[in-house]
Amino acid sequence: MKIRLMGALLWASATLAAPATIWVSPSGNDSNAGTEAAPFRTLERAVDSANASGDAVTVYVAEGTYRLTRPLVFAPGGPAIEIRPVADANPVISGAVQITGWTLYDKNKNIYRASAGSNVSRQLYIDGRRATRARTDSPGDNIPAGFRPSPIVPPNNPKPVISGGIQYLPTSLNAAGWRDPAKWTHVRDIEAVIETQWKMMSVPLDAVTPSVQKKPGLVTLRQPGWTNANLYLGSTTTKADPYKCIAGAPGIWSLWQVTRFENAYEFLDQPGEWYLDRASGTIYYIPRPGENLSTADVELPVLETLIQAIGTPEKPVSGLRFEGLTFTYATWLGAASDDGYVADQSGFRVTGTENELNTTGHVQHVSRTPGNLRFEYAHNIVFTKNRVMHMGGAAVDFGAGSQDNVITRNTFSNISAAAIQLGGVGTTDARPPLPSQATTNNTISNNLIVRTGREYVDSAAIFVGFSSHSDVSHNTISHVPWAGIAIGWGWGLLDAGMFPGIGCAQTGMWGTYTTPTINSRNTISFNRISHFLESRWDGGAIYSTGQQGQSMQDPLVIEGNVADDKAEHSGGNTFYTDGGSRYVLVKGNASFDNRLGRADFGPPPQAGDPLPYLATPSKLNGVPYGSDFGGCRTYGDIHYENNYWLEEPIPFEELAIGALSLLITKFIGMNPAFSPYSAEGFCNVCPYKPADISYPTGLTYRDNHNILGEWEIPRSILDRAGVQP
């Protein structure tokens, strides 16, 4: 009996013993034992040792900067691992190399140069400040003159290879240093960029055919990026069927206009611009006033992944905790590939060769912009009290099969794409065959997120795909180019019933679905979102698409959020329930300083442009657009209660005569004789009335208030969202 009791006590003592510890310090050595007295030198060595331990491990990280040479990889089915600083330390985990040895290269242009060796990156930072890749700068809001995209679309081919390219004629309207593409060097490193509405595209060049006198030259672009950038066809409709679209040439959602070209030595002409000549391994940079390259900390991010924790449906990675760390400097090189960066929406890209021509502005199958801290089939991960900055892709990315994870009390700043991505948008994500493939029970709370989308301006600060029981709450988000928080995917086409929630869509075009997606019981609550839509338009502070539950018993709850200071004139709805949005409760939110916006399809050609654009949608710029709430082809079943709106909706008669109707008729394929704003203020920018049903249906309102009238926003709402008096 005593022997058995002693054995039980020994077993209990072993199971309750403190987890094993591993220590790492810049003064350590990787041949050490990894103890406090003899720590490892690198985090890579420490994580390898933790993975091999088989037991729960805490890795203590001493003060210092740890420059990774490879990602920190966590194995599926491995032990529980916690990484945290030693007391009062602030360890920095970096994916960059320092660039030193700068010399003056061109005195007249103040261009300096230094060696990058064999390193490649899309970002450069000087004393923590992001430099600008060398680009074609035009005065004012002008775009480069003499460049006209001219795609040649093969007829009757649903999976085309689009030829043609960008026609050009050199003109004195452009700077002498870059006006003639035939003189550009390293052409295949250069990218053509367009930023339009809610999208952006960046496609690398392939070759340049010189112009001859008044005969245009041709810039060809790499495939399949050029094809994918021109899949979206313009359309017209008929009086007989205002919802049946007749396809034309690539339209305003394709690469119809060039906002700028990037990444050539010839484009270096402004302080803060840089260029990396990959052939010679040389970086060129024009310092900003006050910068001294002999003393500045110049960082070139070279790693694309700092953390990699990729499990499988059968064996997830689990039990990891990251606390009190600083993750800084990472790049992402995918946008320089043959695919380029062709945005569909919110950081999800069109890639590959299997895409079809369409008139909807979207394709069914997309690829995510990957995270620099990457998790997939990850369970019970805690990411807390960390600082994440200077990321070159998305920052923290929890993909398919993410369950019971917590991202809380972190600070994100200066991120190229999204700060946080959760879940996916594919068929498996929408209807997981296995419970382990579902994204569910995740928390994103109390994070400070500032200046996301610095490079990929179509991205939301926080994106949530197909998921259930997701809690996005008490986050502070500011200075974002598009939406603050975006949730959902598919515009109704992936839901049961296949609601065609985008213009020109047809029921069943993306497959037949009779069962609901996993979307249910998600909550977006008590977030403060300010200075949104700073670059793009047709978005909002909080944006949704698709069916968000199975009924109003398990809806998406948008509650207690405060949204303010939308960029001036940016068209969009503050709380934007877009195509196919259904089963949403919008309760106790406040919107202020979010004025009525305007449509903006890009500047017109410069006066005297030798190759003016064939299409002129810029004539419709300035059309009033946006409200505190609304959407395009919203399904309905949305309840608004106790919200505090900015102002009454603009009366239809105060719009330019028929301007919004003309906009929708010409470019979205409707035939609307309608008022775009309901009496309650819903902005129904895309009316949809097949048969005898007018969408959205089932909008209900209770106790909503106009804060410019007799009501003021209750202090309790502002306090919960962190708004100071």
Report on this structure.
With 725 residues, this protein is mostly beta strands. Among the domains are: 19-80, asparaginyl-tRNA synthetase, N-terminal domain (so0334 like fold), CATH 3.30.1910; 98-267, no CATH class; 492-725, no CATH class. Helices cover 7% and strands 32% of the residues. The chain is built from six helices and 60 strands. Strands 1-2-5-26-33-36-39-42-45-48-51-56-59 form a 13-stranded parallel beta sheet, with helices on one face. An eleven-stranded parallel beta sheet has the order 4-24-31-35-38-41-44-47-50-55-58. A hairpin with a 7-residue loop joins strand 16 and strand 17. The longest helix is centred in the N-terminal third of the chain and has 14 residues, at 2-15.
List keywords for this structure.
single chain, 725 residues, mainly beta, so0334 like fold, 13-stranded parallel β-sheet, eleven-stranded parallel β-sheet, 6 helices, 7% helix, globular, disordered N terminus
Task: Provide a short characterization of the protein structure.
The chain has about 725 residues and is mainly beta.
Distance between termini? 69 Å
**Uncertain runs:** 1-17, 652-662, 664-674
Helix percentage range: under 10%
Strand content: 25-35%
Task: Give, in spatial order, the strands making up the sheet with the most strands.
Answer: 1-2-5-26-33-36-39-42-45-48-51-56-59
Helix-strand makeup class: mainly beta
The overall strand count is 60
State the shape: globular
The value of Rg in angstroms is 27 Å
Mean pLDDT: 91
Largest sheet: number of strands, sense, barrel closure: 13 strands, parallel
Number of helical elements: 6
